[in-house]
Amino acid sequence: MGKLIRSAIVMLLLMTVITGVAYPLVVTGVAQVLFPSQANGSLIDREGKPIGSTLIGQSFDDPKYFWGRPSATSPQPNNALSSSGSNLGPTNPALTDAVKQRIEALRAVDPGNTAAVPVDLVTASASGLDPEISPAAAAYQVSRVARLRGMSESQVRSMVIMATTGRQFGMLGEARVNVLKLNLALDGR
């Protein structure tokens, strides 16, 4: 019996070292060499300081910025530690009320815009952290951003086009616009 226990303990220690230390170190080292930006969180730096990640949504509520998808995380929006959807179904009155409030907020900052509000501007993603919006959601906001920044709509529209990423491999997913990158490009102009 003692031999079996000793063998089990040795195997536990060996597997702990292999799977808990060696493997993570090798994978981290390979990732740092081959994909350094992604391995470090796809951070965006400005003047040597990280200001956000291209992978996690940022909250913008100033009307001169493009707004991203609403976040369902708590206690604050875009909280990566509590990534989750709202779990509100389509017949839930709380979801209906939240969507109505978001539409009212969009209409309040741009009362002249009578276009239909794209769904991704009023509903949270499954993770609650989506950093991107559809090109339609960006196009909906072009006139407001252009007016408040003193730019022409064509200038802002061309910046949206430059910030648009197509489908992966030309067939996977949908075209998308990273809100943080677009807003930083506008600020840098």
TrEMBL record:
Keywords carried by this UniProt record: ATP-binding, Cell membrane, Hydrolase, Ion transport, Membrane, Nucleotide-binding, Potassium, Potassium transport, Transmembrane, Transmembrane helix, Transport
GO molecular function, one term: P-type potassium transmembrane transporter activity
Family annotation (InterPro entries): KdpC
HAMAP family according to UniProt: KdpC
Main location: membrane
Name the UniProt record assigns to this protein: Potassium-transporting ATPase KdpC subunit
Cellular-component GO terms for this entry: plasma membrane
Compartments in which it is found: Cell membrane
Bilayer disposition of the protein: Single-pass membrane protein
Record's compositionally biased regions (Low complexity): 78-89
Region of interest: Disordered: 67-94
Cited function: Part of the high-affinity ATP-driven potassium transport (or Kdp) system, which catalyzes the hydrolysis of ATP coupled with the electrogenic transport of potassium into the cytoplasm. This subunit acts as a catalytic chaperone that increases the ATP-binding affinity of the ATP-hydrolyzing subunit KdpB by the formation of a transient KdpB/KdpC/ATP ternary complex.
UniProt entry tagged with the keyword Flavoprotein: no
Record text on subunit structure and interactions: The system is composed of three essential subunits: KdpA, KdpB and KdpC.
The UniProt record lists the keyword Protein biosynthesis: no
Record gene name: kdpC
Protein family membership: Belongs to the KdpC family.
